[in-house]
Structure formats: structure tokens, C-alpha cells
Amino acid sequence: MVRAHNQATAKLAPDQALSTAQTALVQHILTFCQQHWRQPQTAVFVIHGAAGTGKSVVLSHLLAVLQQARQQPDSPFYQGDNHLLINHPEMVKTYKQIAGQRAGLRKKDVEKPTPFINRYAKLQQRADVVLVDEAHLLLTQSDRYNRFDQTNQLTEILKESHIIILVFDATQMLKFKSYWPQQLLTQVLAPYPTETTRLTQQFRVQAGPAIQHWLTAFGTAGQLLPQPQPDSTFDLRIYTDANQLYAHLRQQNQRYGLSRLVATADFPYTLDGKTYYVETENFKQPWDKNMDPNVAWAERPKTIDEVGSIYTVQGFDLNYVGVILGPSVGYDAQHDCLAIRPERYEDQEAFKQRRDVTDPAVMAEMQRQIILNSINVLITRGRQGLYLYASDPVLRRRLAQL
After folding, report:
1. Which end of the chain has fewer CB atoms < 10 Å from its terminal CB, N or C?
2. Which segments of the chain belong to CATH 3.40.50.300?
3. InterPro entries this protein is in (predicted)?
4. For 210-261, what is each residue's pLDDT tens digit?
């Protein structure tokens, strides 16, 4: 049996080998940082890329280099004040684990955006280099729950930083309060010198082009393409029985570790300490409780007995992932595609009203996109395989026909 614990942490470890392209990008960004080091105007470097293209790995290496260089008097980054920000509690845990195990890194170098913004606003000084992972999760409106009173977290981080390195993937936005319309990122960054790159090589999903295309069409556009021929490097299976899916997934967890069951946010869940369940046709398993403050959900062996969500697995690599599509995901027979039903989506926080959006058609499209994004996040978690089940019986039959 391969132990799951610490595999996700190992993936982001600074000593993890980089590809040739990733190595070149790290060096290019370090040159960018040196050119703009403590200049009056904030400079920004944006890394775009789909899930699994190694964006977080690049950031982890950059943080390690910068934090080690701050202790070297002959380095251009000597005594640098650098931070990594991420609006994702599970990823914060992982980065802090890494920092606690590596010389030159400190756990306090990693935090969520709001504490950083509030602290530096009071200090009236700017940090040197701020790396922002999963920047598509940054808030674009005030949020009492996160104690953020301003209107856009990136705008505030720009005020408090000399250099910002951020990674952004528009297909992973999951809530109205962190919704980035197509032109918003461009508008926010317009006043600043900005350089942009895009990572395209897929490092997570070890599948051939046909399966990669099938996953992209399904997760980003809701298209139902014929199921590709079997791929020796990736195990794609569609199930008509959730219990059978779960049994096979547990077998893979025994063999390879880091295999987990996840579901769309279509089943009731409340943060009140009680146990809530994902239930569908003769299947019932508890939602994740995620009570460990230090270890990410995916890395705890006992979570094979739970069902994870987009909020517990976004940004993580699994070996095998089982995905249950809930009632918000049905079948559109007229167009032979997924039918997205926002009224069946149980994550009410995701659709919390925005004061700046009043057009019902725009609102409906935002809701549809968020649910599609959540599907995309879930189906792209597995390195070696995806097991898929639809709770909607009509969609389940159509998927089986593929």
C-alpha cells in the first residue's frame, strides 16, 4: 500500500523537480523581481494556466528562493519582506506544513489575504514580493465573514506591495463574492507594469489527448462527447451505481493511496458541528468535517470514509478521484449537453447576492458558470483516474450511453 499522507505536500515542496519550462519561468520571474525591486510603482507578473499545469509548484519554488536569498548579504533580495497569500484554508495548511519543514521558510510567511491587507494598511509600508496563489479566489466585494470591508482584495494587495506574482484561472471561480468578470482583471491591473505568461503542459491528469479533450469539454462547457477509447495511463470510468464506484475507489486507495470521493455542492451542509450526508439512490456517506487545523483533508487517511467538496480538494492532486454529480447537474436532451440547475445547488454562500449585478440574465449565467467551474475543479483532481456518477437518473443513462 502507498501511504497518502504528505503526498500533496511533497508535490509543492521546493525541492520537487521542475520541468525545463518551469525552471525557465522561475528564473524569468526572479529577473523580473530584480528589475522592479523596491521601485516606486508596483509591478505585476501574472501566470495563467488550467488546473494541473504546475502554477502552485512554480510559486512554491519562488517563495523558497526569495526567502533563502533574504538571508544572503550578496543577494539582490537581501532582507526582503516577502509573503505568499492564498484564500483557501486547506492550501494554507499545506504551505505552512512545507514552511515548517524547510530551512529559510517560516510558517508566518504564508497567510490568507485579509490579515495581510489589514496589517500592512496599518503599518503604512509595502511588502517587497507578494505571491498570490489561486488569485481567482480573491474577493471582488466586501465580505463580513472574511472581515474584508473593501471592495476588491487584489486592489488592496496592489497598494501594499512592490511586486506581485499571481496565478489566475478563470475556470476555477466558485462564488459570487470572488467572481471575476472577463475584463475585471485587466481593468484592475491596467495602471501597473504587467507581464503575463501561460502554462499549458498538464502535470496532474496523466491522460492522452483524447481523454484530456473529453474532460475539458465536459468540465468547462458541459459538452457530452463520446467516451474516448481506454487509455493505459488514465482510468476513466462512468458508473450507474454509486456504491460500485465507491468500492472501486477504496480498492485504488489501498493500492496507490490518495484516492478520495468528492461531490458537487448539491447536498445539504451546515457548519454547525453536526454530521451531514451525501445521499443518492441507495448510497449514503458523510460530508467531510475537516476538523484538523494543521493537516489538509485530502492528506488524512480516514477521509476515505468521507465525501469531499470543491473547498477541500481545490488545488490538490489526488491519485484517483470519484465524483458524484448532484441534482444541480441534469441532462438537456434538446442540445445533448449538461443541464445546469442553479435552484438545486445547495451552496447558498456561492450565490450570495451582489449589489453590482441586477440583470437576471447575467445573474443566471454567473450561476451556471460557477456550477460548471465546480465540476471542472472536481473532475481534474485525479492523476491516474476519474470515476464519475450522476445522481440525476436521466443524465446517468445518457452518460452510460457514451
Report:
1. N
2. 7-199
3. P-loop_NTPase, SLFN_3-like_DNA/RNA_helicase
4. 999 999 999 999 999 999 988 899 999 999 999 999 999 999 999 999 999 9
